[in-house]
């Protein structure tokens, strides 16, 4: 028998995060393309990001037929937040700059690459990247490499750069509560045994 679930944050109603989710405006529009396998993941950070930003959209799937429309909202320049040798570092908006449509694939690295492969329009987008050396607060997964962040953390860092000095830290409050809740559920001893080696993802 499944537990009652909040229809908004998709968490069990006893662990609903909605009270912690902010409502933040941003000049940047965020388009989250979530691999279908992530939807029911207990740590669905893309959904938290989409709920906390008024100028964000979450689309779930594998092949996105309406991508031409999604990638071309009037007045925005689309950029893909994904590593590549030719990816440009994000920079703060200068006066008169056209706002960015930040396209963020959500899934494991393998699933995210698959999304790009299956949607050639994504492959064709100019890529942007975050500055090196960011440390994730995601203490329940080992990072696949240095600077690997959860989806919500990557979005927060990107917006902090683009829209400095505006702070988007409140987006991380439900994420941190989610992590704390997962650790409490597994027990501190199990957490330390499995994740207490400092290699957090």
UniProtKB/TrEMBL annotation:
Provide a Gene Ontology MF annotation, just one. tRNA-uridine aminocarboxypropyltransferase activity
What EC number(s) has UniProt assigned to this enzyme?
Answer: 2.5.1.25
DTW domain mapped to chain residues: 2-187
Top EC group: transferase
Spell out the SMART domains in the cross-references.
DTW
Family, according to the entry, reads as follows: Belongs to the TDD superfamily. DTWD2 family.
Record keywords: Transferase included? yes
List this protein's GO terms for biological process.
tRNA processing
Keywords linked to the UniProt accession = S-adenosyl-L-methionine, Transferase, tRNA processing
Name the record gives this protein: tRNA-uridine aminocarboxypropyltransferase
Q: Which residues form a coiled coil?
A: none
């Amino acid at each position: 028998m499944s537990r009652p679930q909040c229809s908004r944050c998709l968490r069990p109603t006893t662990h609903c995060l909605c009270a912690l989710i902010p409502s933040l405006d941003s000049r940047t529009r965020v388009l989250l393309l979530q691999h279908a396998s992530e939807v029911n993941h207990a740590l669905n950070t893309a959904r938290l990001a989409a709920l906390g930003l008024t100028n964000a959209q979450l689309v779930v799937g594998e092949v996105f037929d309406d991508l031409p429309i999604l990638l071309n909202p009037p007045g925005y320049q689309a950029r893909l937040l994904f590593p590549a040798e030719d990816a440009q570092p994000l920079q703060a908006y200068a006066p008169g700059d056209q706002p960015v449509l930040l396209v963020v694939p959500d899934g494991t690295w393998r699933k995210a690459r698959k999304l790009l492969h299956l949607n050639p329009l994504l492959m064709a987008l100019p890529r942007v990247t975050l500055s090196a050396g960011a440390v994730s607060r995601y203490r329940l997964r080992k990072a696949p490499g240095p600077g690997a962040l959860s989806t919500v953390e990557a979005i927060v860092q990107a917006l902090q750069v683009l829209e400095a000095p505006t702070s988007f830290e409140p987006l991380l409050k439900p994420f941190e509560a989610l992590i704390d809740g997962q650790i409490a559920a597994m027990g501190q001893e199990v957490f330390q045994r499995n994740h207490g080696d400092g290699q957090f993802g």
